[in-house]
Design a protein that fits this description.
Low-confidence stretches: none
CATH architecture of the largest domain: 3-Layer(aba) Sandwich
Strand content: 15-25%
CATH topology of the largest domain: Rossmann fold
Pfam families: CbiX (PF01903)
Number of domains: 2
Largest sheet: 4 strands, parallel
CATH class of the largest domain: Alpha Beta
Structural class: alpha/beta
Strand order of the largest sheet: 2-1-3-4
Keywords: Lyase, Metal-binding
Order of helices and strands: EHEHEHEHEHEHEHEH
Distance between the termini: 18 Å
InterPro entries: CbiX-like, Sirohydro_Cobaltochel/CbiX
Helix content: 40-55%
Shape: elongated
Mean pLDDT: 92
Protein name: Cobalamin biosynthesis protein CbiX
GO molecular function, one term: lyase activity
Length: 232
């Protein structure tokens, strides 16, 4: 019997409930037990989730990172902590992050199409990292998919690291469709919105994040189908 751990970012100083309802909605379709494990904070920790599944005597644990891109949490924190408890004891595997799912791509295309004016340019902003290039390569691919589907120019950019979104804002004073590619309407997503409005007023179209969006549930289901852990 397999077990699923939905791995969320979490917060150090409090329990975040963002997107938990979407995960719970997938539960009736699961064909195996599951737990939710948070990477940050002292509540519902990743280790508690693993221990909970071990207590149910699962034979394999599948980790599904509820993260958009493979940066430090997906590349280092999750693999290291999973290995510390399971290496040599129980088979396990870590699924890919959600940014490369068809569900996310189609959601972004729909968002842009619904918001687009005839000559608008799109700015796609993700978290970013100075440590890995893969997140930006995946963001570039998303931008290309959106551009091909909508006929719009789409600029991929980050909040942290290289390829900063502020550089695009300076180069493009005209109206932009700005998609903040974050899983929650949290601190950084709000900060980006505030900075854009402060610098540019209300000329831009600011699209919502993925928080509580059906597309996020669809992305989760897409990954679970790849792992054969959900009913069709």
């Amino acid at each position: 019997m397999k077990g699923i751990v939905f791995v969320l970012h979490g917060r150090k100083n409090k329990l975040s409930t963002a997107n938990l309802a979407l995960i719970e909605k997938t539960a009736p379709r699961l064909t195996c037990p599951y737990k939710i494990g948070l990477l940050e904070g002292d509540h519902q920790t990743l280790e508690e989730a693993i221990d909970g599944l071990l207590a149910q005597q699962v034979e394999e644990i599948i980790f599904l990172p509820i993260l958009l891109f493979p940066a430090t949490h997906a590349k280092e924190d999750l693999p290291q902590r999973a290995a510390a408890l399971l290496e040599g004891k129980l088979p396990y595997r870590i699924l890919a992050t959600l940014g490369t799912t068809q569900a996310v791509s189609q959601y972004l295309i729909q968002q842009v199409e619904e918001a687009a004016s005839a000559d608008s340019t799109v700015l796609l902003i993700a978290h970013g990292t100075p440590h890995y290039e893969e997140p930006y390569l995946q963001l570039q691919q998303l931008a290309e998919e959106i551009s091909q589907a909508t006929g719009k120019i789409v600029y991929p950019a980050h909040y942290h690291g290289d390829h900063l979104y502020q550089e695009v804002l300076v180069q493009h004073p005209e109206l932009l469709i700005i998609q903040r590619l974050f899983l929650t309407e949290g601190y950084l997503a709000k900060k980006i919105k505030e900075e854009v409005v402060q610098q540019r007023g209300s000329i831009d179209v600011l699209l919502p994040t993925l928080q509580d969006q059906p597309a996020l549930a669809a992305a989760i289901i897409e990954r679970l189908e790849e792992a054969a852990c959900i009913q069709s």
